[in-house]
Design goal:
This protein has 402 residues and is mostly helical. Helix content is 55%, strand content 2%.
Length: 402
């Protein structure tokens, strides 16, 4: 019997997955209703307000606004991005160690109310800063780096455009593979081995193209600027010694709350391929498996539901193993190898953009950042151990060694 995963229109409607941009928010709004002009002014002028030292004072003087005028999903997502950017800027300010541990109620209350409505945590997540923080310069031209921009940055020279847009373009390229899911599940149900093989090869091709897009990061993001500037504003208050107890959301919760900062682990697309290919990241145990599971709560609920639904469907890996068809196994392994290559490259990027700058900063005796924090990801995890564990688990899923 056919199921929902055999029709892309059903997948798209039920799980908010767009045919062109995948898990990204299609054509995000650029402005909120006029009642939120003060929020928008601060978000659009973060670089100047942080630079001049006026940011915190402007935030503290904001009126308490109701979220009732945010009536549709896109306006709610834009508001979550806006409030997330303002929150990160307020907590970290100029990034020199002067950290605020209490978010004022005039921003904390609407932010937490909106987060509850969206079923997202009240912190800047990947779904905000990457998936909803973009626009086309010319709506009639294609989705290319040259024809795109971000809606909000923290500093004038923080490389946020490069980092967020390259991440988004990798995401979009990889997500184009989702269109092959209906073919895959129908082929397994109908025992059509050649159709399954071709669909798997298309997925591998999408992942290979995503890796090529990933190379653009070197052109648009400077390692020192990313590490010393942008990364600070993406850092959360879980596993962070600068906010060891978390952040107090004044007027909403009595106790401080700990949330992870924005992380690639919050991307639904790569967890999607792990689930589809039967790569047992969650079964590997330890902190990596727990982190990936925790990160699902930072995804929009429709995308979380998609991953859960995918987990309940017939196993591609088991089907391929049962058929014992050499060509089919080769196509399956092409997908796994493409994922391994992406994860190997991610490790190289982390070395260049985090480990090397961290080691250079540790030699600077004036640094106010705890040295152990330098090697952690913005999500608060031990970055290299996490990525190596995920990569190794992926590699071990190859049916044929070499």
């Amino acid at each position: 019997m056919a199921h929902a995963m055999e029709n892309f229109c059903t997948i798209s409607e039920e799980y908010d997955i767009d045919g062109e941009v995948g898990f990204a928010l299609p054509n995000p709004l650029e402005n909120l209703p006029d009642v939120y002009n003060d929020w928008m002014f601060i978000a659009k002028h973060l670089p100047d307000l942080i630079e001049s030292g006026e940011l915190r004072e402007r935030v503290e003087k904001l009126d308490m606004l109701s979220i009732d005028h945010l009536r549709d999903h896109k306006s709610q997502r834009l508001a979550h991005l806006v409030l997330g950017c303002i929150t990160m800027a307020y907590v970290w300010d100029q990034g020199c160690g002067d950290v605020r541990k209490v978010l004022p109620k005039n921003i904390a209350v609407p932010y937490c109310q909106l987060s509850k409505k969206l079923q997202l945590p009240p912190i800047l997540v990947y779904a905000d800063c990457v998936l909803a923080n973009w626009k086309k310069k010319d709506p009639n031209k294609p989705l290319t780096y040259e024809n795109m921009d971000v809606l909000f940055s923290f500093r004038h020279t923080d490389c946020s455009k490069g980092f967020f847009l390259v991440s988004l373009l990798v995401e979009i390229e990889a997500a184009s593979a989702i269109k092959n899911l209906p073919t895959i599940f129908k082929a397994m149900r109908m025992q059509e081995l050649d159709a399954l093989r071709k669909a798997l090869l298309k997925i591998a091709s999408c992942l290979e193209k995503a890796l090529q897009v990933f190379h653009q990061i070197h052109e648009h993001v400077d390692p020192q600027v990313f590490f010393n500037v942008l990364r600070i504003y993406l850092s959360g208050w879980k596993g962070n010694p600068q906010l060891s107890e978390g952040l107090i959301y004044d007027g909403f919760w009595k106790d401080a709350k700990q949330f992870s900062g924005g992380s690639a682990g919050q991307s639904s697309i790569f967890q999607c391929f792990d689930v589809l290919l039967g790569i047992p990241q969650r079964a590997s145990g330890g902190s990596a498996a727990q982190f990936l599971q925790d990160m699902r709560m930072y995804m929009p609920p429709a995308h979380r539901n998609f991953l859960c639904s995918l987990e309940s469907k017939p196993s591609v890996r088991e089907f391929v193993l049962l058929k014992d068809d050499a060509d089919l196994r080769e196509a399956y392994d092409a997908c796994v190898k493409a994922l391994v290559n992406l994860r190997n490259y991610h490790l190289q990027i982390v070395t260049k953009y985090i480990l090397i700058p961290a080691s250079q900063k540790s030699k600077d005796k004036t640094s106010q950042e705890p040295s152990e924090q330098g090697n952690k990801g913005t999500g608060g995890t031990d970055l290299m151990n996490f990525l190596k564990t995920v990569r190794t688990t992926t590699q071990k899923s190859l049916l044929k060694e070499g």
